[in-house]
Amino acid sequence: MRQPIRQAVTTLSIQTHGQGLVEVTEPIARWLGGQGIATGLLTVFCRHTSASLVIQENADPDVRTDLERFFQRLVAEDPSLYDHTLEGPDDMPAHIRSALTTVQLSIPVVEGRMALGTWQGVYLFEHRRRPHGRQIVLHVLGE
Amino acid sequence: MRQPIRQAVTTLSIQTHGQGLVEVTEPIARWLGGQGIATGLLTVFCRHTSASLVIQENADPDVRTDLERFFQRLVAEDPSLYDHTLEGPDDMPAHIRSALTTVQLSIPVVEGRMALGTWQGVYLFEHRRRPHGRQIVLHVLGE
Amino acid sequence: MRQPIRQAVTTLSIQTHGQGLVEVTEPIARWLGGQGIATGLLTVFCRHTSASLVIQENADPDVRTDLERFFQRLVAEDPSLYDHTLEGPDDMPAHIRSALTTVQLSIPVVEGRMALGTWQGVYLFEHRRRPHGRQIVLHVLGE
């Protein structure tokens, strides 16, 4: 008999090291692998407004550096531009960089794995200057 | 016996007040609360190309103002830059601002509520100068 | 008796023609129409880091041209700005443009169809100068 659709949810804690991308593909894949779901939909959700999620190339590390620099140029850490400066000069730029990327990714699961392309990795994008402990919620629905 | 996964869908009408963020966390939470779903996945979908969705800090209102101003600077309302000007100088910038943010958010549901972080609120981002009636579709799958 | 929730998944191959938007609403709608799902959630996932997805206006073609030009201005193809230049001057800008838009869209299904607004179309956004064969994964959960 066909198994009914079921779901699982967990929260991962990720330590960041100041501004930049932290790859989270592996801890997500490990958790997903333990759920015994062959086909389904995995959702990754970042519970913060000064960190976000991106899928980027996982081959040349220069891609991550170039991406980080682009966002530094695009969203200047210049307090004269913002009213919200109480939490430091990097806080409002962090909120904006988060809005320009995303805090949520849903990825189909095929043959028990995320249907990522060959060169795709999932990254937590820390936008604050200091290291932070960040939470991402993982949810999977499937069978 | 374990309850099977089920789903619900509705459309919310949101009145905007010209360019800026309108918080929609509360009406979404109210609808979700009525569905009796403890664990699942909630999707919010904006049916427009000149309004969008963002998750932003719900504490200091300056964050919203700073975010709005950033998008006004980044995507200038300068008709000389665009061919699509028939619907007004704010229409093409609205489409671009929508593409830079998102029209869709999926948020895990845990213990009957959206798994938002402490400082996260869900906002409809109106990109046109005039007030508009906007539709967002809510969909939840869970048990 | 109520039908249980079920799911389907497929991969579409899309040919692009160099930088610009390729509408994919129709092939997605055709596949969805064949699944016999009245209510549910459709996810579109782009398996690349130099192409992405956007929902944009499907009426005036100038909107697409203006959007493409905006991204060309915002993310310059200037090799002096990037370290990652081995794959050509358009590769790193492509990765950044992909991060600024999204590689994933989830759209509620209502009455057997995507709950898109009247003016919304789904587009694959090619960011490389040359034509490419691109893969998008479609996943639907519903009943």
From TrEMBL, chains A, B, C:
InterPro entries the record matches: UPF0047_YjbQ-like, YjbQ-like_sf
Family: Belongs to the UPF0047 family.
PANTHER family assigned to the protein according to its UniProt record, in alphabetical order: UNCHARACTERIZED PROTEIN YJBQ-RELATED (PTHR30615), UPF0047 PROTEIN C4A8.02C (PTHR30615:SF8)
Protein name: Secondary thiamine-phosphate synthase enzyme
Protein source organism: Azospirillum rugosum
